[in-house]
Design goal:
It is a single chain. This protein is an alpha+beta fold and 153 residues long. The chain contains four helices and nine strands. A hairpin with a 2-residue loop joins β8 and β9. It is globular. The two termini are 36 Å apart. This is SsrA-binding protein. GO terms for molecular function: RNA binding. Belongs to the SmpB family.
Length: 153
């Protein structure tokens, strides 16, 4: 594997099912020593996580990073709030996008980039049930078309 290649560690598949992702932003995560070891081992869950902007800072909330087995007393709370590293311009843009619009920030995936843990957060708007059914119906139709084209050849 190339030295600068991104190594994906976790993905939130349910996010694309439950939300319309309008925009994505890459952010760094502030982690302790034992947390980064667990993340590199792939022991992270994004399922119920979300991001929030408070006092001009972005925070990752309710993301579960399993305790490191050899961490002993240095292990942190698995679902603690973690700070996200974003540029001031990105923070102001996200703050303006989130104001009174029914939007939320959802973590989509966590990966290593040049040895640093990064999270891809998406500016998302919730889907209704009929939107979810429409997506499933469209996916099944595309599968049927591909299957018929494959049999036709």
């Amino acid at each position: 594997m190339a030295k600068n290649a991104d190594q994906q560690l976790a993905q939130n598949k349910k996010a694309r099912h439950d939300y319309h992702i309008l925009e994505t932003i890459e952010a760094g995560i502030v982690l302790t020593g034992t947390e980064i070891k667990s993340v590199r081992a792939g022991r992270i869950q994004l399922k119920d996580g979300y991001a929030q902007i408070r006092n001009g800072e972005a925070w990752l909330i309710n993301v579960h990073i399993a305790p490191f087995e050899q961490g002993n007393i240095w292990n942190q709370n698995p679902t603690r709030t973690r700070k996200l590293l974003l540029k001031k311009r990105e923070l102001t843009q996200l703050t303006n996008d989130l104001k009174g619009s029914g939007m939320t920030l959802v973590p989509l995936k966590v990966y290593l980039k040049n040895g640093f843990a990064k999270v891809l957060i998406g500016l998302a708007k919730g889907k209704h049930d009929y939107d979810k059914r429409e997506t499933i119906k469209r996916r099944e139709q595309e599968r049927d078309i591909k299957r018929q084209l494959k049999n036709y050849r």
